[in-house]
Design a protein that fits this description.
This protein is α+β, with helices and mostly antiparallel strands. Helices cover 31% and strands 25% of the residues. The protein is built from 14 helices and 24 strands. It has helices spanning 2-10, 30-42, 133-139, 166-170, 174-181, 204-211, 217-220, 222-228, 257-263, 279-289, 291-300, 342-355, 362-376, 410-424; strands spanning 17-18, 21-23, 46-50, 59-65, 68-74, 80-84, 99-101, 104-106, 113-115, 120-122, 147-151, 154-158, 189-190, 196-200, 243-248, 251-255, 304-307, 311-314, 317-325, 328-335, 337-338, 384-386, 394-397, 400-403. Strands 14-20-19-18-17-16-15-24-23 form a nine-stranded antiparallel beta sheet. β8 (104-106) and β9 form a beta hairpin. The two termini are 26 Å apart.
């Protein structure tokens, strides 16, 4: 490990990222992966869960920030905390379950117990220690993330409190979250359908790049587009008004709203489902925001936005990417439940099975492309991967750097510009 750390320190990251291409080693080098886990996850803001996953006092879920296991827990005081999943005695992992409800976390090794807010509660045979119990409690509570913020129900954390303000981090990504919430008559969403997990033999950045790649669908997802046309849009048309956009801070999106607005049809993004089949949901929306605004929101549809470094608002799904190794990642996918929209929620679940499930159209296609991408990188020549499409089509707008060429690699470049800032620092 020391030799790998020494090698990592010697890597000139800035030289590996050029404005129109990136070096293949960024996807394959274990030493670079180690640097990423420290710089991009453990010392940065990351998505860790949704507050609807832990609605009750004592609810918890387990996640990872970089390589560090954490427990996202709602204490009896209702406060959401992100606790390091480690006993402060001999470092045993306290909780292995994906989620649950508990007043206490008990170490299975020597029986130390902690409240669900991280405070040390009990130490068996405590007379064996020279310290008073009060002193032990004050010093040996579970470590926790220094910064936790919730926006639109999405929980973000920074382990060490050194990543700057949350507002600076989230930036323009608030807009897509607001757009998603605007589809609910109650202004909120829930993730209560559970997560599907897809393990992939691909680097985490390959998975992220694919989420907002407007160039690949016509080829990778050819079967999908044949199946849904003309229900959605003719993706082969050169006249599509679809934007790729750099929102800043590594956030980016593919925005279909202008094309939908041009057609002025509702639910193009949802198989053009007729209003009559979701009458109660439509009525609830109109009661909440009025008929005109409801029509606008049903036309515009949900976001297709990546929020740096691990959250993807995939229209009616949420995707979270967990890096495991330089050549391995896990993609978690959850269907969105619209608060106050039970009729549309039932259809979202069926769509999730067809598009995102193990036998679905989209995830299976993208998963295979990701693994083939990683396999191709084993060939060392040429050394660089190109990201040069669409420079001349980009314009600066209030929403961000935008190209109305949907095949532009604006979104991937957005990630790499931010990656370089965080990884190369003064080298950049």
């Amino acid at each position: 490990m020391t030799a790998q750390m020494d090698r990592a320190a010697s890597i000139d990251i800035a030289s590996l990222i050029q404005h129109d291409r990136i070096h293949g080693s960024l996807y394959t080098d274990p030493a670079i992966f180690d640097l990423e886990m420290t710089a991009l996850f453990e010392n940065a803001w990351v998505f860790v869960g949704h507050d609807s996953e832990i609605p009750e006092k004592g609810d918890y879920l387990t996640r990872r920030i970089g390589r560090q296991p954490v427990i996202v827990a709602r204490g009896k005081d209702e406060v959401v905390r992100v606790l390091l999943n480690r006993c402060t005695h001999r470092a045993n992992m306290l909780c292995r379950a994906d989620s649950g409800n508990a007043a206490l976390f008990r170490c299975p090794y020597h029986g130390w117990t902690y409240a669900n807010d991280g405070r040390l509660q009990g130490v068996p045979f405590r007379e064996g220690y020279d310290q008073e119990m009060a002193e032990m409690r004050s010093e040996l509570g579970m470590a926790q993330a220094h910064q936790v913020e919730i926006y639109g129900g999405f929980i973000f954390a920074n382990l060490y409190g050194n990543a700057g303000s949350f507002d600076d981090y989230i930036g323009r990504a608030k807009g897509p979250i607001d757009r998603l919430l605007s589809l609910s008559p109650e202004g909120r969403i829930e993730l209560r359908g559970g997560w599907m997990k897809h393990k992939s033999a691909a680097n985490w950045k390959i998975v992220n790049e694919s989420q907002v790649d407007g160039y690949h669908p016509l080829f990778t997802h050819e079967s999908v587009y044949k199946a849904i046309m003309p229900a959605k849009v003719d993706y082969a048309s050169d006249e599509l008004l679809v934007a790729t956009r750099d929102l800043g801070g590594g956030h980016n999106e593919v925005d279909y709203s202008r094309e939908y607005q041009a057609q002025d049809d509702e639910f193009i993004w949802f198989k053009r489902t007729p209003r009559e089949k979701m009458a109660k949901y439509v009525a609830a929306m109109e009661a909440a925001v009025g008929a005109e605004e409801t029509h606008k929101r049903f036309v515009d549809g949900p976001p297709h936005t990546f929020i740096w470094p691990n959250l993807f608002l995939a229209e009616m799904h949420v995707i979270m990417v967990e890096p495991v190794a330089a050549n391995e990642s896990i993609q978690y996918t959850a269907p969105i439940h619209i608060a106050g929209g039970e009729e549309i929620n039932a259809r979202i679940l069926r769509n999730a099975e067809g598009a995102m499930g193990p036998a679905g159209f989209l995830i299976a296609d993208d998963g295979e492309m990701g693994e083939r991408n990683q396999a191709g990188l084993a060939a060392k020549q040429p050394e660089w991967a190109l990201l040069s499409r669409g420079f001349s089509s980009e314009v600066q707008e209030d929403k961000g750097l935008t190209s109305y060429d949907r095949t532009s690699e604006t979104t991937q470049r957005a990630m790499w510009v931010h990656y370089k800032e965080l990884m190369a620092g003064d080298q950049a």
